[in-house]
Specification:
The complex is a heterotrimer of chains A (353), B (150) and C (171).
Chain A lengths: L3 E8 L11 H15 L10 E5 L2 H4 L4 H5 L11 E4 L3 H13 L5 E9 L5 H6 L14 H14 L5 H18 L11 H6 L2 E4 L1 E2 L8 E10 H7 L4 E10 L13 H10 L8 E3 L5 H10 L7 E2 L14 H14 L5 E8 L5 E9 L1
Parallel strand pairs in A: 2-3, 2-4, 9-10, 9-11
Antiparallel strand pairs in A: 1-7, 1-8, 4-7, 5-6, 8-12, 11-12
Helix pairs in contact in A: 4-12, 7-11
Chain B lengths: L7 E13 L1 H12 L4 E4 L5 E2 L16 E3 L3 E10 L12 E8 L6 E5 L12 E6 L10 E6 L5
Antiparallel strand pairs in B: 2-3, 2-4, 5-6, 5-8, 6-7, 8-9
Chain C lengths: L9 E13 L2 H10 L4 E5 L6 E2 L5 E2 L4 E2 L2 E5 L2 E10 L12 E8 L6 E5 L12 E6 L12 E6 L21
Antiparallel strand pairs in C: 2-3, 2-6, 4-5, 7-8, 7-10, 8-9, 10-11
The chains are: A alpha/beta (353), B mainly beta (150), C mainly beta (171).
The structure holds zinc ion (ZN).
Chain lengths: 353, 150, 171
């Protein structure tokens, strides 16, 4: 099996409202930047292109097709799309390369969630007979998950606030693209009133607009290009039942399974970028991934600092890859999630060459 | 080029779908219309309410329906201070995971209460039916504290 | 439970989602100028193709388009279809003609209506011109043009459609 390298990554700022920017205008700068860092200029220069997005976010049918206008797809390119976070577009690209159908790929994700009411839009991804007609939103489902953890003594509210405080602090120190950042004390956070109790507004990721992009290829190709790279040493994703009542919401079995297959515990993890849209979910995930105090969790601030729905999973992988490419770390992991209450999880282990 | 004008406008996107229910969901909704709640037995004998078509662990096709109680226990909940336009309540309410008597798996539904302080994990609740039932999940108007259903 | 009760076999689940849509920069520029009765496309800096309406990029080259180019409201029919079935919500009564039109000064088509024409003789290469609404009704919308109607001009040869500027329009 061919080893796969990430050679470049680019992400836009996370902004609450990108206003007068259409799909193409959001995507094009990050695609140009990722391709440029790999020494390439258009999608013609890679063998495969795959994107992740969800048209319901902006309410524009087939918006992902319009996004192709940013690529330079004449003559026609090999292109695909997932109606998921672009971390899964990366997974498709990896399969394509491993099957020998491509040596290089461009992967990008974008989300313009500002036109709609995201938690309500996401209620319609649920069971169409029993849940979607109730319009139960994703914040409420996460709040019930947090309540279970509090009731069972798995964590306390101060633990949740500590996650938020660290996210804001890390975003301030390390992430110029973050939407929410700053120094804020745990006591200050706990003094705020609840929003969807037991969650406070700060326990929930913000709604953001933006995009991110990545170039990957075989290790041989990366050497040919003469670019520094990070190697994907393991990747796996698992999904749990859609029936929320049938899951143990206080842990993430699918993350545990994916982490085992991806080889998380085969070596020390210096940095972990985790896609936890709610503070309590970071606590579930660090446990499921078996991370200890030797690992720096979410140095970027994670998605509590800015959540590009459909691109943030790819950005987690990019954040870790970039640190390896820069020579800052040797080994790290990235996690991406999809669905309510961490239903579906993808774990990637990245290493220096 | 000068900066463009900012052009924006409200719009509503409508998907007017009908869905086939199949024998399992259809049976559950038919019973709701008759003010009865049924679950289904999973491969290991666990009772799922609402009924699932396939066992989430074994993928076995399920068919053994079981009538369950209309009261049960709150397994978890959250309090919605500011209901959204789409929510099934204009005033503050709770979403809850409710394990009905005779069921093993809790279901998500509305829990109506006048204040957050009246809701707690483990509390007993009872289904309150809509005035008219039609074979839809909202035939259960919501759950209320046991004793408050009338 | 009675055996003969009518089973539920399907449910109506209408979904309505509210959005506040903001046009992209290229679209906003285009619509602002349509409101002034002008058709303004954008030219690709790489291949010179002129897009109308513009989307801010050249789909072929994958580069941003910024240079604005005003084009004529005279067009050449590149392709067309005659619609005989009523479309729910569409006030236009069939049969009517929808055409891909290439405006003079551009070489990528857009879609609009043809009218005041003989449906049976509409053809590729036919020359047409916009029929605008009265100026006081102009808005940020392409239906400022009610439809296009045939011009008494020679056809553009098939192989030249979309390839050359025509009728005195200088690129
Ligand atoms: Zn071009």
């Amino acid at each position: 099996m061919k080893d796969i390298a990430i050679v470049s990554f680019a992400q836009s700022d996370c902004v609450r409202n990108a206003g007068a920017k259409n799909e193409v205008e959001l995507i094009m700068p990050v695609i140009k930047s990722a391709l440029g860092a790999a020494g390439l200029s258009t999608a013609q220069d890679v063998d495969f292109t795959c994107s992740g997005s969800c048209d319901y976010q902006q309410g524009a049918a087939f918006a992902f097709v319009l996004g192709v206008d940013a690529l330079g797809a004449v003559p026609p390119i090999k292109e695909s799309h997932v109606e998921m976070d672009a971390a899964w577009a990366l997974y498709e690209a990896i399969l394509k390369i491993r099957m020998g159908h491509a040596d290089s790929a461009l992967v990008y994700g974008f989300g313009k969630s500002s036109p709609g009411e995201l938690p309500t839009v996401l209620s319609q991804q649920l069971d169409p007979y029993y849940l979607a007609p109730l319009w139960v939103d994703t914040v409420s489902l996460a709040a019930m998950q947090a309540r279970m953890m509090l009731d069972q003594g798995v964590m306390e509210e101060a633990d949740m606030a500590a996650v938020v405080a660290r996210s804001r602090r890390n975003a301030l120190a390390n992430n110029p693209h973050a939407q929410l950042k700053g120094e804020v004390a745990v006591e200050q956070l706990l003094a705020e009133e609840t929003w969807v109790s037991p969650l406070r507004k700060h326990d929930c990721c913000p709604v953001s607009d933006g995009a991110s992009a990545m170039v990957l290829c075989t290790v041989e190709k990366a050497r040919e290009w003469g670019k520094p790279y990070a190697v994907i040493s393991g990747i796996d994703h698992r999904i749990e039942t859609h029936n929320l009542g049938a899951r143990d919401l206080t842990r993430s079995v699918s993350t545990e399974q994916a982490a085992a297959v991806a080889g998380v515990s085969d070596g020390a993890i210096e940095v972990a970028e985790i896609y936890a849209p709610y503070s309590h979910q970071e606590i579930i995930l660090t446990r499921a991934l078996g991370l200890g105090s030797e690992t720096v969790v979410n140095p970027s601030g994670g998605v509590l600092a800015g959540n590009l729905m459909m691109a943030s999973g790819l950005s987690r992988i990019g954040e870790v890859a970039q640190r390896i490419i820069n020579g800052d770390i040797k080994r790290g992991l990235a996690h991406a999630t999809s669905g309510p209450c961490l239903q579906h999880n993808l774990v990637t282990v990245l290493e220096a060459a | 080029m000068s900066q463009p004008e900012l052009l924006s406008q409200d719009f509503e996107l409508g998907f007017t779908y009908t869905r086939s229910t199949g024998p399992v969901v259809g049976r559950f909704l038919t019973d709701l219309r008759d003010r009865i709640i049924v679950g289904i037995k999973g491969s290991d004998g666990k009772v799922y309410v609402p009924p699932m078509e396939y066992d989430p662990v074994t993928a076995e096709e399920l068919s053994e329906f079981v009538e369950v109680g209309q009261s049960g226990e709150v397994v978890s909940w959250c309090w919605v201070k500011e209901p959204r336009d789409s929510h099934p309540s204009a005033v503050p309410f709770a979403w809850a995971l409710i394990k009905l008597d005779g069921a093993d798996v809790p279901m998500v539904h509305v829990l109506r209460a006048s204040a957050e302080s009246e809701v707690s994990t483990g509390m007993r609740v009872t289904a309150r039916w809509a005035e008219e039932t039609r074979g839809f999940i909202t035939d259960i108007d919501g759950f209320v504290a046991a004793g408050d259903e009338s | 439970m009675s055996e003969e009760r009518e089973m539920i076999t399907g449910i109506e689940v209408p979904i309505y989602l509210k959005y506040h849509f903001t046009a992209g920069e290229a679209t906003a520029r285009f619509l602002s100028q349509v409101r002034q009765g002008k058709l303004v496309g954008q030219r690709c800096p790489s291949c010179n193709n002129v897009y109308l309406p513009p989307r801010g990029s050249c789909a072929a080259c994958g580069v941003a388009t910024t240079e604005e180019v005003e084009v004529a409201d005279k067009c050449t029919v590149e392709s067309f279809t005659i619609v005989y079935i009523p479309i729910p919500g569409n006030p236009i009564q069939p049969p009517y003609v929808i055409a891909n039109l290439i405006p003079d000064g551009a070489n990528i088509s857009f879609i609009h209506l043809l009218s005041e024409c003989d449906n049976d003789t509409v053809h590729r290469g036919q020359r047409v011109q916009a029929v605008w609404k009265p100026q006081e009704e102009w808005d940020y919308a392409m239906d400022n043009i009610r439809y296009f109607k045939p011009l008494d001009e020679p056809d553009v040869p098939s192989e030249s459609i979309g390839k050359v500027p025509v009728t005195g329009w200088e690129v």
